[in-house]
Amino acid sequence: MKLKCMVVADPRRSAAELTASQCERLADMRLVAGTTAELLQLTQQYTPDLVVLSLELSELEPEDIVPRLTLAAPNVFIIATYRELSVTGMEQLGKLGLEDFVPHPADALQIFRAASRRFHVPFRRHDRHMVAIDVIRADGVTVGRTLDMSEGGLAMGAIHPLTAGESILVDLPIEDGPKPLRVRCNVLKVEGQAPTPVTAHMQFVKLWGPEHRRLVAYLAKLPRSGEG
To answer: Against a cut of 0.85, is the pTM above it?
Structure first.
């Protein structure tokens, strides 16, 4: 399932276009606005399900923009992107109707997760692929075995204690050469508790360049287990 329409509004049009392209799996129609006037016009014309609103749009303040957005699209989900924002400022904007916040540069994965929470649908940016390989901590300790993997992260059956929020460096012995893929992971959540089966969901951090291309080429050879 996808959203019908989303609008990404940012005065840096290239940044808005990048975010929109990264959200291809989230919405059928992804529109870009570089000004407040353009954002309001698109909202009135297309009634989007989601607006990703940069707080750097300067023609109007959020207290002026948000009511006009919700009038044009009463059920719209508004995610604010920001460069600097205090907790107090976030609380004040929340009262206006800004439901979620993502720091610049906007991370598409955070947008997908926010949309999943809001619409109660498991939107996922990447295909998941079925694979069972060891996940080995950089110090050589095997912490688990993968259940599935995507460009964004992996799920594994954990055999070593892990905690949500933990960051670990792991080696993945993917079958494309003698050297394992080394990547840092953030533990997003841990389901279950030993001695029952424990599943850890981990997100790859700053995986790009040659190592990212290695992973993409490896995953392309694996069967899909769904959109993840």
So the answer is: no
